[in-house]
C-alpha cells in the first residue's frame, strides 16, 4: 500500500519489462493511517515488485487507491499485502497497455485523435 504524494522516479513504458498489474487498495480505516505508515516506513515493497504510479479516488473519503505495479512474480503481492493487511485490502488485476491489446488483436498503433 502506501499511496503517497511523495514524488517517485518516473517509469516509462520503455523501461517496463515485467507484467503489469492494476492494484485496487481499499483503506479499512481511511487514508490517514496508510499515509502515516508510508511516511515512516515507505511502501515496503519486496524486491522484484515495482511501483509505477498511483491515483486516489476523488471523493471525500479518499479511501481507494489505484496503483500500477510491475513484477515477473505475482506471488510478491502476497508478501506486500501481508505488511499492510491491518490497514487495507488489495485486489490485483493483470493489465496490459492499449498498444499491447491492439497488437494482440492484430491492429496497428492507436491514434490519439
H-E string: EHEEHEH
Q: What is the count of distinct domains?
A: 1
Question: Which consecutive residue ranges, at least 5 long each, have pLDDT under 50?
Answer: 4-14
CATH class: Alpha Beta
Terminal-residue CA separation: 35 Å
**Inertia-based shape:** globular
CATH topology description: Alpha-Beta Plaits
Helix content: 10-25%
Our estimate of the beta-strand percent is: 25-35%
Spatial strand sequence of the major β-sheet: 2-3-1-4
Number of strands: 4
Q: Classify the secondary structure makeup into a structural class.
A: alpha+beta
Q: So how many helices?
A: 3
Mean pLDDT across residues: 87
Plain-language structure description:
The protein has one domain: Alpha-Beta Plaits, CATH 3.30.70. The protein has helices at 31-41, 76-84, 98-104, and strands at 19-27, 50-56, 64-71, 88-95. Residues 4-14 have low confidence and may be disordered. It is of the alpha+beta class and 113 residues long. Helices cover 24% and strands 28% of the residues.
Amino acid at each position: 500500500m502506501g499511496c503517497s504524494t511523495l514524488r517517485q522516479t518516473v517509469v516509462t513504458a520503455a523501461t517496463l519489462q515485467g507484467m503489469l498489474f492494476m492494484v485496487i487498495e481499499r483503506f479499512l480505516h481511511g487514508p490517514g493511517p496508510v499515509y502515516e505508515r508510508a511516511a515512516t516506513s515507505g511502501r515496503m515493497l519486496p524486491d522484484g515488485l515495482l511501483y509505477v504510479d498511483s491515483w486516489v479516488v476523488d471523493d471525500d473519503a479518499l479511501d481507494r487507491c489505484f496503483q500500477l505495479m510491475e513484477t515477473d512474480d505475482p506471488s510478491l503481492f502476497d508478501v506486500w499485502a501481508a505488511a499492510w493487511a491491518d490497514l487495507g485490502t488489495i485486489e490485483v488485476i493483470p493489465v496490459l497497455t492499449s498498444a499491447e491489446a491492439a497488437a494482440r488483436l492484430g491492429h496497428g498503433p492507436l491514434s490519439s485523435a
